[in-house]
């Protein structure tokens, strides 16, 4: 199917406004572009309450934001935002976190991990590992119950989420939720050759992100490219969303197949007509809500008392 009309309109408007690609920007300029996109994409729904927190990690105290539903939560979702390891803050992902709370009836803890290039690999990954461990140990004081823990993320945030879970006790995490994850450094898959005028994220952008995150000789390390891990057994049940018009589509679907081959329960869903980043576009395309509803059903299945 063709790229969804609303997404095509967004791309056309960005081109007509002269918006540069991330790969043509400095990190500071790219962060400003992402922040400005929040106004275009709109706000999220009202939730029960919101608190800013400080989370201790081995490298520093990092900022986090806890979004809570009005009722006792079905689970606590630790969410790791995308942005190519270089971009993104809790403010940029405020609307997405609110939408997740509204659709899943879960609490969402959004981590503001350290960003490259100021803090290259493995700084952000260590923050996410420590943030997940901290959230697991403090569930009752965070949300008022010993509810199940779900780890989620999108794009490079999904990369950090799934890598952070490698080696954890299988029953420790109820689910991992991965929206269009970065899982490999190979930029020669067929999805990387999709027409550039249909893409929110390009090969040049991904190479720009990788170069800021780590030296090229580390890109194939499984802690950066988890698709290359020797063994993926022991990871929690997994839900993966891919987008038809996304350079990361093929690697994410390959990751789903490898997880299944290693005994991990996986639900893989490709969203036709969608592009990279569609989960943040819930005010633009209904498919984002469909994805959140899918996640809500799976959490209800896995986290029921």
Write the layout of secondary structure elements.
Layout: H1 5-16, H2 27-41, E1 49-56, E2 61-68, E3 76-80, H3 94-104, E4 107-112, H4 123-137, H5 139-143, E5 149-154, H6 156-165, E6 175-179, H7 203-213, E7 238-245, H8 249-261, E8 266-275, H9 287-303
Parallel strand pairs: 3-4, 3-5, 5-6, 6-7, 7-8
Antiparallel strand pairs: 1-2, 2-4
Would you kindly provide a written description of the structure presented here, covering whatever features stand out?
The protein is of the alpha/beta class and 305 residues long. It has a single domain (5-303), classed as Alpha/Beta hydrolase fold, catalytic domain (Rossmann fold). It contains nine helices and eight strands. Strands 1-2-4-3-5-6-7-8 form an eight-stranded mixed β-sheet, with helices on both faces. Helix 3 (94-104) crosses helix 9 (287-303) and helix 4 crosses helix 6. The longest helix has 17 residues, at 287-303. The mean pLDDT is 95.
């Amino acid at each position: 199917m063709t790229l969804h009309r609303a997404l095509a309109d967004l791309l056309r408007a960005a081109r007509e406004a002269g918006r540069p690609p991330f790969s043509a920007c400095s990190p500071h300029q790219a962060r400003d572009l992402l922040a400005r996109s929040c106004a275009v994409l709109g706000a999220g729904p009202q939730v029960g309450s919101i608190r800013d927190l400080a989370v201790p990690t081995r490298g520093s105290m990092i900022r986090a934001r806890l979004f809570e539903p009005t009722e006792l939560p079905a689970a606590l979702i630790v969410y790791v935002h995308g942005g190519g390891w270089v971009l993104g803050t809790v403010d940029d992902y405020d609307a997405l976190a609110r939408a997740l709370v509204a659709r899943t009836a879960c609490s969402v803890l959004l981590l503001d991990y350290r960003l490259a290039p100021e803090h290259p690999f493995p700084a952000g990954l260590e923050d996410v590992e420590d943030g997940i461990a901290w959230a697991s140990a403090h569930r009752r004081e965070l949300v008022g119950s010993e509810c199940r823990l779900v780890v989620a993320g999108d794009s490079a945030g999904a990369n950090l989420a799934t890598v952070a879970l490698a080696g954890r006790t299988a029953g420790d995490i109820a689910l991992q939720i991965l929206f269009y994850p970065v899982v490999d450094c190979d930029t020669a898959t067929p999805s990387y050759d999709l027409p550039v005028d249909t893409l929110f994220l390009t090969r040049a952008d991904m190479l720009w992100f990788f170069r800021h995150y780590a030296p090229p000789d580390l890109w194939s390390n499984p802690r950066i490219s988890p698709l290359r891990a020797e063994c993926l057994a022991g990871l929690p049940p997994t839900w993966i969303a891919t987008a038809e018009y996304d350079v990361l589509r093929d690697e994410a679907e390959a990751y789903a197949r490898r997880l299944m081959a290693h005994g991990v329960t996986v639900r893989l869903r490709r969203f036709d007509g969608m592009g990279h980043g569609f989960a943040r576009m819930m005010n633009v395309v209904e498919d984002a809500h469909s994805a959140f509803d899918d996640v809500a059903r799976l959490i209800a299945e896995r986290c029921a008392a």
